[in-house]
Amino acid sequence: MEIKRCSKNPIVVPGLADYRRVSVFNPGVIHDNGEFLMYERAAGSLRPFKTSIGLLKSKDGINFSLVSEKPVFTGAMLGFPDGSVEDARVVKIDNVFYMCYALQPYAFDCWPTGIAVPDYYPEHYPQWKENNTEPMITRSGIAVSEDGVQYKQLCYTTPPEIDDRDNALFPEKINGKFAIVRRPMQYVGKKYGTDNPGIWISFSEDLQTWSEPELLATAQNPSWEGLKIGAAASPVKTEKGWLLLYHGVDSKSVYRVGAMLLDLNDPRKVIARTKSPIMQPEEYYERFGLVINNTIFPTANLVYNEELYIYYGCCDTSISLAIVPVNEMLKYVFDGK
User: CB pairs under 8 A, 24+ apart, for 242-248?
Assistant: First the structure.
């Protein structure tokens, strides 16, 4: 299988507006009414390092233009003016746009180290002041829109006391229920059945009350996903099953991409999975950036003209696109390579 990187990568870079002066990354993308809508995560500064979600549009999925010089979703809209909203993953169900997002409610500063994870200074966080053990709790939620532009808060999908991100809704109800994948960082140990943070799944009839999360997948290969794994983008429905891309992180904080297939009728069942990463940092823009080096972080994938379009953040600095025929991807996952 050959996943082709777009020749115009990175297709979206910082600039053009104050809220996105420093970096743009980890976008949600949806194709609707003949148009691609991209919901970028963007930062205007490193001190404070505050991110919001902006909107871009495209006719071909490659050449995007900024819709507004103001973001469409911010921490202030949730009552946290110094907070950040992150990593939009967007689906459309019954003519309603649902945006899964992560919220870091308080301000913090970020200094890149040029090696791996940057130095963060989260002294503003109450948890940091109290016990210095959980300095950057991140809560996840869902915002909704009727036009894909104006979003309002609908609900939180995770409790406030744990760090739980990488939430992504399935693009349709399954057996009459909404389904969501998530990654609770504290769900590790014998009690939870995993030694490292993994991917969990929950269900809801109304998006307000969620079933107890069930463990869906754990890290299998220490060489590239030994530190943690998490859902990359919302699952894609195929004739073979739900295609779920995920990110794996190793001990040196290198972010790679794997893939698995979930049963169409019971997505709690993993029916196929790759053993090796399908993508890893290779190009310059994937290996070096402003914030975290050696990072490929997909947060959107969609089927367009029988090809899978994979949109991913590069080193928390820019946005790129990779394309592969859907059938080739499915065969590769089933072969378990």
Answer: 242/170, 242/267, 243/301, 243/308, 243/326, 243/329, 243/330, 243/333, 244/181, 244/199, 245/278, 245/298, 245/301, 245/310, 246/199, 246/217, 247/166, 247/296, 247/297, 247/298, 248/219, 248/221, 248/224, 248/277
pLDDT score for 128: 44
The whole-angstrom separation of Cα 76 and Cα 70 is 13
pLDDT one-digit tens code per residue, 120-169: 666 666 654 444 445 568 999 999 999 999 999 999 999 988 899 999 99
Mean pLDDT calculated for residue range 225-243: 96
Q: Are 123 and 63 in contact (CB under 8 A)?
A: no
The size of the chain, in residues, is 337
Two tokens, residue 213: 């999360």
Residue-level pLDDT at 132: 43
For residues 13 and 36, the answer to whether their CB atoms sit within 8 Å is no
Token output for 329: 């991807």
Domain residue limits, the chain: 4-335
Structure tokens at 177: 């229920």
Amino acid letter, 91: V
Helix, strand counts (H, E) of the chain? 4, 23
pTM equals: 0.95
Long-range contacts of 162-165 (CB under 8 A, 24+ apart): 162/137, 162/186, 162/187, 163/134, 163/136, 163/137, 163/138, 164/138, 164/139, 164/140, 165/86, 165/87, 165/102, 165/138, 165/140, 165/230
Runs of H (alpha helix) within the chain: 126-130, 222-225, 284-287, 326-335
CATH number for domain 4-335, candidates 3.90.1280.10, 2.115.10.20, 3.30.70.1290, 3.40.720.10:
2.115.10.20
User: What digits encode the pLDDT tens for the residues 62-110?
Assistant: 999 999 999 999 999 999 998 999 999 999 999 999 999 999 888 777 7
Radius of gyration over every alpha carbon of the chain, rounded to an integer in angstroms? 18
CA 177 to chain centre: 22
